């Protein structure tokens, strides 16, 4: 979603991106260039640029007129690009990407050249997220670990979790917290002391005798809201 809440982006198995006007519910632009399913899309902080990642192993940079301005090929991922994000930092403008090759890559936004390869995951990466100040990124995936990386220094900081598969990650907008969609709960870590603040679980009614127990629900996407907060204003989801 754009930072002003007026537009949303989507990526699809039809190989396209779409820009949606949330006031009318209509598509305003269709972005065509990828040759396989689009797995991830994101707006830049100023809403003027869009990045996409695809099963075609390419990362594309667009303007909002649906014009592809650059396709990253050199030193790009060797497998599906599952997640892409912009950093909001003006002093260190970068794109962060990750994929099924188990690597987190950091790209210079101005040149689209590779800055850093972050290696450490033992499985496919499902999600990356960048902190509100642009200094950190977190990645998580099939190996169940959430890895924290310093984007300014280009180094690994520490690892959290090592349990169930992580489907999505999001930094808090006003606290030093990281939220993770970990099967089958939503887990919140305090990054200062590296402890779990809370685990959010969906209550499931007990099944009656003779009926098959349903599979536990899985959270596949997260967003930290600036609008809807908990009663204590401690966290928002």
Automatic annotation (TrEMBL):
The similarity annotation says: Belongs to the WD repeat G protein beta family. Ribosomal protein RACK1 subfamily.
Alphabetically list the UniProt keywords.
Repeat, WD repeat
WD repeat placement: 1-30, 31-63, 74-109, 118-159
The keyword Repeat is annotated on this UniProt entry? yes
Query: Record's Gene3D superfamilies?
Result: YVTN repeat-like/Quinoprotein amine dehydrogenase
A Pfam family assignment = WD40
Q: Which GO terms describe its molecular function?
A: ribosome binding; translation regulator activity
Q: What CDD domains does the record point to?
A: WD40
**According to the lineage, what is the superkingdom?**
Eukaryota
PROSITE patterns, sorted: WD_REPEATS_1, WD_REPEATS_2, WD_REPEATS_REGION
Q: Which InterPro entries match?
A: RACK1-like, WD40/YVTN_repeat-like_dom_sf, WD40_PAC1, WD40_repeat_CS, WD40_repeat_dom_sf, WD40_rpt
Q: What is this protein called?
A: Small ribosomal subunit protein RACK1
The answer to whether the entry has keyword Cell membrane is no
Q: Which residues form the signal peptide?
A: none
Q: Which SMART domains does the protein's record reference?
A: WD40 (SM00320)
């Amino acid at each position: 979603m754009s930072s002003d809440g007026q537009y949303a982006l989507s990526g699809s198995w039809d190989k396209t991106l779409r820009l949606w006007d949330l006031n009318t519910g209509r598509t305003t632009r269709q972005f065509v260039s990828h040759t396989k399913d689009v797995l991830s899309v994101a707006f830049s902080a100023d809403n003027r640029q869009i990045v996409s990642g695809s099963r075609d192993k390419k990362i594309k940079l667009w303007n909002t007129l649906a014009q592809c301005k650059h396709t990253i090929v050199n030193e790009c991922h060797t497998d599906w690009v599952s997640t892409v994000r912009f950093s909001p930092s003006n002093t260190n403008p970068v794109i962060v990407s990750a994929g099924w090759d188990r690597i987190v890559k950091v790209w210079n936004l101005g040149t689209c050249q590779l800055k850093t390869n972050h290696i450490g995951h033992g499985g496919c990466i499902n999600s990356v997220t960048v902190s509100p100040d642009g200094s950190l990124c977190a990645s998580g995936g099939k190996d169940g670990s959430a890895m924290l990386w310093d984007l300014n220094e280009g180094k690994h900081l520490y690892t959290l979790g090592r349990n169930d598969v992580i489907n999505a990650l999001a930094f808090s907008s006003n606290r030093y917290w990281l939220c993770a969609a970990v099967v089958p709960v939503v887990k919140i870590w305090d990054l200062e002391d590296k402890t779990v603040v809370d685990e959010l679980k969906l209550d499931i009614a007990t099944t009656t005798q003779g009926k098959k127990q349903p599979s536990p629900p899985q959270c596949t996407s997260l967003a930290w809201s600036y609008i809807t907060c908990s009663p204590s204003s401690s966290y928002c989801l």
